[in-house]
């Protein structure tokens, strides 16, 4: 049985914290391309270094890697290598159409594991999947589906 102290202490949200090479480029991708909004932010010496972005109740934190000084923290290689984020949506096909109209290069939606799935990679190589449940047959692609979203 859960105690009052446990209920108060239980985590309520997880917010992925992504290190990015170029904050401006990342914001173009997430805000202009995917429709996220910038919330709280940290500006250091006139430069945006960290921010929380949100859309429809989901959030990410972005922080630009320090490039100079004694605390350079940019890792070797591609920062997003091996990192995938899956966003469960009400309608991944509608999201695909929206972000494609904004110029984002999302993969054609396809049914995988009873979910419409579309994929993008951000400028740092993080893999983003947007998915929504469906009863359309497995491996159906949007271009081959008749009334896939009705």
Describe the structure.
With 150 residues, the protein is of the alpha/beta class. It is built from three helices and eight strands. The protein has one domain: 2,3-Dihydroxybiphenyl 1,2-Dioxygenase, domain 1 (Roll), CATH 3.10.180. The chain has helices at 4-9, 23-33, 92-101; strands at 17-20, 37-44, 47-55, 58-64, 84-88, 110-112, 115-121, 127-133. The strands form two sheets. A four-stranded mixed beta sheet has the order 1-4-3-2, covered by helices on one side. The mean pLDDT is 90.
The helix/strand order is HEHEEEEHEEE
Radius of gyration: 18 Å
CATH class: Alpha Beta
Outline the low-pLDDT stretches. none
Q: Give the number of helices.
A: 3
Strand tally: 8
CATH homology-level superfamily: 2,3-Dihydroxybiphenyl 1,2-Dioxygenase, domain 1
Shape: globular
The CA-CA distance between the termini, in Å, is 43 Å
Count of the separate structural domains: 1
Q: Structural class of the secondary structure composition?
A: alpha/beta
Portion in helices: 10-25%
Mean pLDDT: 90
Biggest pleated sheet = 4 strands, mixed
Query: In which order are the strands of the major sheet placed?
Result: 1-4-3-2
Shape-level CATH architecture: Roll
List the helices and strands and how they pair.
Blueprint: H1 4-9, E1 17-20, H2 23-33, E2 37-44, E3 47-55, E4 58-64, E5 84-88, H3 92-101, E6 110-112, E7 115-121, E8 127-133
Parallel strand pairs: 1-4, 5-8
Antiparallel strand pairs: 2-3, 3-4, 6-7, 7-8
What descriptive keywords fit this protein?
150 residues, alpha/beta, 2,3-Dihydroxybiphenyl 1,2-Dioxygenase, domain 1, four-stranded mixed sheet
């Amino acid at each position: 049985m859960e105690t009052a102290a446990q209920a108060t202490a239980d985590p309520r949200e997880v917010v992925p914290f992504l290190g990015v090479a170029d904050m401006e480029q990342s914001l173009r991708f997430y805000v202009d391309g995917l429709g996220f909004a910038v919330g709280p932010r940290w500006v250091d010496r006139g430069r945006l270094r960290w921010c929380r972005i949100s859309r429809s109740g989901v959030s990410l934190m972005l922080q630009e890697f320090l490039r100079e000084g004694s605390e350079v923290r940019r890792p070797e290689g591609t920062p997003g290598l091996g990192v995938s984020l899956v966003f469960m949506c009400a309608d991944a096909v509608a999201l695909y159409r929206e972000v494609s109209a904004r110029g984002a290069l999302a993969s054609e939606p396809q049914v995988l594991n009873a979910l419409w799935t579309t994929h993008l990679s951000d400028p740092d190589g993080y893999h983003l999947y947007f998915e929504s449940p469906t009863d359309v047959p497995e491996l159906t692609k949007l271009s081959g589906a008749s009334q896939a979203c009705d």
